[in-house]
Amino acid sequence: MSFRKILLSAALFTATAVFAADLPAVKILATGGTIAGTAASNTQTTGYKAGDLGIQTLIEAVPAMKDYADVSGEQIVKISSNNMDTKTLLKLAKRVNELLADPKTDGIVITHGTDTLEETAYFLNLVAKSDKPVILVGAMRPATAISADGPMNLLEAVRVAASKEAKGKGVMIVMNDEINGARDVTKTNTTNVSTFKSPELGALGYISGGKIRFYKESTKRHTVNSEFDVSKLDTLPRVDIIYSHIDDDPVMAGAKGIVHAGTGNGSIADPTFEALKKAAANGTVVVRSARVPNGATTVSVPKYTEAGLLESDTLNPQKARLLLQLALTKTSDPKEIQRMFEEY
Ligand code: ASP
To answer: For a pocket test of ligand 1, which of 53, 77, 81, 140 has the largest count of ligand atoms closer than 8 A to its C-beta?
Structure first.
């Protein structure tokens, strides 16, 4: 090799090394799910083993991530997210906060099953103590499937986590080229790759034409502006969801809080209402939500308000449950808790 060539390659090496060192550091926390799922054949898209592959395998499958971020991985759990529980949620939240407090971390991606993805995302939206990006990502097809959606979703999640534009927007879900805010997003289809939507309130942005494009952000409190702190918590108060239906009966469990998934605008069958009224009178905090996917659950018939029942705004029952759990770690005053339902 000529001296000139050596000099040239040394200069190139230095340029590449500086470039790599300049990339944002993104930590991928893996929890399992379909994105790490494997099946016996490449056409099998149901009944596979969720959470089978480890984080290193997922990282190695998408080398293009290294063009956008200095990526490293950590396995938190390897579960199908229908098995997510409070213990794991708190463990994840504490690790997220530890990493966010580290100046060496610029953003976090969490790989997660899609079944309860929106719950973990909203929980972290309420308890993550930083404006650095925290992005949740999953897949609808296992890693072994033809047209698996996981690799592109992971690449896009890392790109958003590494981007300056994602700072301060709260926790987000990136899947299928869409960026949705944790508060408003929900899983809308059991099997389709285009499942995560924010009905009515809409996506925050897209990844298209090779660009991250944001159009808006939530006006609700989150992350650095949240009053909730899980650093000293080992568990959360019990909150049950009661799903309304024809022939509802008033059987209630012994919970500190109840979310009622009502018909229409949080309506309640009379026998169930009597039981909820009694529960509220005995100090259980009862929040009216709705099994209807769109719209806010608002103040409605006076007897609900007189009985001290609260309203969930646009939070669906599973998200209202998480906010009520966190609210109950601070107070059991219904007025104060209603304030929280208006602010988060
Ligand atoms: N059952 C899987 C899970 O939630 C489904 C998925 O990841 O899409 O882990």
So the answer is: 81
Q: Is 80 in the pocket of ligand 1 (CB under 6 A)?
A: yes
Encode pLDDT of 265-309 as tens digits.
998 888 899 999 999 999 999 999 999 998 999 999 999 999 999
Query: Residue 248 pLDDT > 90, yes or no?
Result: no
Q: Is the CB of 81 under 6 A from ligand 1?
A: yes
Cα–Cα nearest to 255, from 270, 244, 242, 272:
242
How far CA 96 is from CA of 49, 90, 217, in Å, comes to 26, 10, 22
Q: 106 to each of 16, 93, 103, 159, 313, how far by Cα in Å?
A: 20, 16, 7, 12, 33
Residue given tokens 């089978």 in the structure block: 52
Is 34 a residue of the active site?
Answer: yes
Tokens of 83: 């098995």
Cα 79 to ligand 1 centre (Å): 9
Q: What is the DSSP letter of 132?
A: S
pLDDT in tens, 26-46: 999 999 999 999 999 999 999
CA distance 87 to 234: 7
Q: Is the pTM of this model over 0.85?
A: yes
